[in-house]
Each structure stands twice: as structure tokens, then as C-alpha cells.
């Protein structure tokens, strides 16, 4: 299926006339304009590497070496292959790869707590309870990968979107924005937890003793009949969710490419070591395998929790970027070495395999950190850190037509607010959809026939030549 017919393929019900018009309207009204704009439809896959907790722009991509010490911090900067671009001294591998990516330095919004800001980043929509830590709700906006499944489901893989190394905890409870929301559980991204434990997942794809292929087929036929009944009976929403999940389980068992994609043991030891033999590194390696398998949308939670270091200070896997105190120790000894190692390996591996041209990689978090370094009495740690800050932060994009070596936007002299090209999470979401060939003006009907726009912003055109 292509075009509008592909967008309708995941609904499981006949489209209404209004739905047909809404899905077709962007192409009818815009003509060839979206397809002719730079970067439109260049990507087969999008990979979001999510730096959970709020990565400090001042101590990574946008250092201010001429600012006072209480602003610039204790780290030095190093040059890159991009003229005029300097980054933190603890990212030498990424500095050497600056000709592969673009840095967008003018991201901005005003949501200042992790749960709602993660929701904003992962859905492109503000949460009704801004600057809070709300639980996931069935009335939430869906994750961007769920929206993609609604408007253009995958053709060659059982899942349109996969979340790796989740679920994201913010701070200790599951963050909203990761699920199907008002689209229902049938649209949720498939979730892979700790990729170091995928052996147990793969074992779950084996048929239980005594279950022959014929018996499996009978169970699948029964599940399909139950699904059809639940879909036509509005009194059975919970049953609809259960049978939908059962159908997805049958798809997994019957899809050999799923087992192949999720089996990290098929990778040579040298490749696994190149990414780093830890949760973050192997999650990035899993993302590369999913790109090869044809998964359109992958979100890698580089850190599965925003601030696990309070409970496990000696476990680097537990660290998140929420560095209120002890920021420089946490970055130098735990966060930046792994980030530099694994993300650089991911970018270089995609390039060497010829996948970067058709994959848009976006490295982002929910916000940045405050310009002023200060000790916060209400948080663990004995040395200063930085507070939450959404006024200005940086993201990195690579591949699928993004101008390599570009720097888009700039911050003010202390990286507090954009000095040019202010860009919202909605704009960033529109850029990701743009790369996949989904216009920001595309609309769809939710499961109650309410019209929804796929994203709230507009693509960042200056990322392209």
C-alpha cells in the first residue's frame, strides 16, 4: 500500500468520507511542494537517541569558554572538524565526527519538569499539566512513533515503532509520552527493555512444549474472531486492547526477521565492543540492527532513568543527565565517556554500512541545564550542578539530507536563550516526520473521529542546504 491507502491500513475499520478527505488533503492542497522541499522523504528510518534527564548544553555542544567560571564550568573545550564549532573536551570521538552531523543550538520551551517535558519531547505536544510529573493516561497524546503507525504503518516489519532500553523513568515512575495514548494500545511502540537481557525475550518467541504449528494457528484464528467482535462493540475497549496485543504476539512469533533483528549475539564481538558492552552502547547497536531490518521509527533511551545515580552512585548504567549537584564528576566519570563512545560508534557504523543517507538520527533530551553553576541543598551531592532549563538547549541531527557540519541557530552569550532561529519541540517533531515524507500538515482522525494534526510545528528548513 502507498499514499492514503497505506495510511488507512492500520485502522482496522472502513474509513469515513471525512477521514479520506483529511488524509488526502495535504497532498491535494500542497501538490508537489512537500516532495520538492529539501530533505522531504529522504529517510527510510528515524532514530531518536534520547538523553534522558536534560543534557547540559554548556558542557556538551554549546560551551561558553569566555564566560565567567560560574557559567562556563570546569571543562575545557576542543575544536572539531567544523570551523568555529567547539565542544566539551570529554567528547573527542564526536568532535572528530562533526562532519557527519549538524548541531541545532536554539531549541527552546518553557516546561521545567521531567515528566511533562519528556512528554513534550516524545509527543511534540505540551502536557495539560505543564512542569509536572504526571503518570501516563489513556487520554494522552500518542508517542510520535504511534502517530506514524496511525498515518503510515510499516510494510516490511511487524512494528512501525520500537522503543529500546525503556521504559523511561522520570524520575522513578514511568514517564508519560511513551505510549499509544488516545489511539489505544494497538498503536503503541513495541518496547524492548534492557537489551543485555534480550536472550530471555528471544526465548519467549519459541513455541511452548506441546503447542504445534496447527494449534498455534487455531489460537490465532480465535484471537482474530475476538478482535473483530471487540472492534464492533464499543462496550469492550479493554477486550479490544487484549486481543490486539495477542495479535501482535502472533505476528512476532511468525516473523523470523524479528528474531534476527533482536538477536545481538549475531554481531561479531569486535562490533559489540566498539559500541560499548553496557546498556546504552548495546541499545545503540540494537537501533542499527532495527534500521537494517526496516523499522521506520526507533527511540533509544540512552539512559533508562533520568536520575538513578541517587540510589546507585557506583552503577554507571543507572546514571541520567539530571545533574542538579556533582555535575562535573557525573559527566566526566560516567555520562560523557559512554555517550561519546557509543553515539560516535553508531554514527560511524551507519555511515560505513551506507545507512546514514537514508536514516535521520536525532540526539535530544527533554531540556538543557541552567547557565549558573550552583549547589542545591534539596538534592544529593556535595559539589555544584545545574538546574533544569528549557530556555535554550542543543540537539544534534545527522543523515537523510541534513547538511553535515552545519550549525543552525545560536544561543546568547551564556546559553540561556536563543539568539536566533528559536526552535520548539513541535518543530523538531515536524522535521522528523518531514524526513520520512509525512507533511506537517497531515491530519488523521483519532479513534473517536476527532481530527488531529500529526505535529504542532514546522520543519527546520535551515538544516538542509
TrEMBL record:
Pfam name, any one: DUF1501
InterPro entries per record: Alkaline_phosphatase_core_sf (IPR017850), DUF1501 (IPR010869), TAT_signal (IPR006311)
Cross-referenced PROSITE patterns: TAT
Superkingdom per UniProt: Bacteria
TM stretches of this protein: none
Entry protein name: DUF1501 domain-containing protein
Amino acid at each position: 500500500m502507498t499514499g492514503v491507502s497505506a495510511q488507512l491500513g492500520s485502522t482496522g475499520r472502513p474509513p469515513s468520507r471525512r477521514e479520506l478527505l483529511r488524509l488526502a488533503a495535504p497532498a491535494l492542497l500542497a501538490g508537489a511542494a512537500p516532495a520538492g522541499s529539501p530533505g522531504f522523504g529522504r529517510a527510510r528510518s528515524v532514530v531518536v537517541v534520547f538523553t534522558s534527564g536534560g543534557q547540559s548544553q554548556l558542557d556538551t555542544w554549546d560551551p561558553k569558554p569566555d564566560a565567567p567560571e560560574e557559567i562556563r564550568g570546569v571543562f575545557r573545550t576542543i575544536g572539531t572538524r567544523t570551523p568555529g564549532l567547539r565542544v566539551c573536551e570529554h567528547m573527542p570521538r564526536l568532535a572528530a565526527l562533526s562532519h557527519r552531523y549538524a548541531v541545532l543550538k536554539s531549541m527552546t520551551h518553557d516546561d521545567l519538569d521531567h515528566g511533562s517535558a519528556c512528554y513534550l519531547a516524545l509527543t511534540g505536544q505540551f502536557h495539560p499539566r505543564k512542569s509536572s510529573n504526571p503518570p501516563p493516561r489513556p487520554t494522552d497524546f500518542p508517542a510520535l512513533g504511534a502517530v506514524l503507525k496511525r498515518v503510515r504503518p510499516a510494510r516490511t516489519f511487524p512494528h512501525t515503532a520500537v522503543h529500546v532500553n525503556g521504559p523511561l523513568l522520570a524520575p522513578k515512575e514511568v514517564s508519560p509520552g511513551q505510549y499509544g495514548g488516545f489511539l489505544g494500545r494497538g498503536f503503541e511502540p513495541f518496547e524492548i527493555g534492557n537489551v543485555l537481557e534480550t536472550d530471555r525475550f528471544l526465548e519467549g518467541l519459541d513455541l511452548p512444549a506441546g503447542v504445534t504449528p496447527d494449534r498455534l494457528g487455531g489460537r490465532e484464528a480465535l484471537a482474530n474472531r475476538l478482535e473483530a467482535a471487540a472492534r464492533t462493540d464499543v462496550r469492550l475497549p479493554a477486550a479490544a486492547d487484549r486481543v490486539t496485543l495477542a495479535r501482535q504476539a502472533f505476528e512476532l512469533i511468525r516473523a523470523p526477521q524479528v528474531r534476527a533483528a533482536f538477536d545481538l549475539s549475531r554481531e561479531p564481538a569486535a562490533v559489540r565492543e566498539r559500541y560499548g558492552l553496557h546498556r546504552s552502547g548495546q541499545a545503540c547497536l540494537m537501533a542499527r540492527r532495527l534500521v537494517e531490518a526496516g523499522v521506520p521509527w526507533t527511540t533509544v533511551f540512552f539512559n533508562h532513568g533520568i536520575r538513578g545515580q541517587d540510589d546507585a552512585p557506583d552503577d554507571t548504567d543507572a546514571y541520567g543527565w539530571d545533574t542538579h549537584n556533582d555535575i562535573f564528576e557525573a559527566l566526566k566519570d560516567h555520562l560523557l565517556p559512554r555517550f561519546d563512545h557509543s553515539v560516535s560508534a553508531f554514527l560511524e557504523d551507519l555511515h560505513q554500512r551506507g545507512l546514514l543517507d537514508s536514516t535521520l538520527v536525532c540526539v535530544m533530551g527533554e531540556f538543557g541545564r541552567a547557565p549558573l553553576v550552583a549547589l542545591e541543598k534539596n538534592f544529593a551531592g556535595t559539589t555544584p550542578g545545574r538546574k533544569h532549563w528549557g530556555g535554550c538547549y542543543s540537539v544534534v541531527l545527522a543523515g537523510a539530507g541534513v547538511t553535515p557540519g552545519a550549525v543552525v541557530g545560536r544561543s546568547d552569550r551564556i546559553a540561556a536563550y536563543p539568539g536566533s532561529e528559536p526552535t520548539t519541540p513541535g518543530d523538531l517533531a515536524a522535521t522528523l516526520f518531514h524526513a520520512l515524507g509525512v507533511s506537517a500538515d497531515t491530519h488523521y482522525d483519532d479513534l473517536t473521529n476527532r481530527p488531529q494534526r500529526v505535529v504542532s510545528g514546522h520543519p527546520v528548513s535551515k538544516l538542509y542546504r
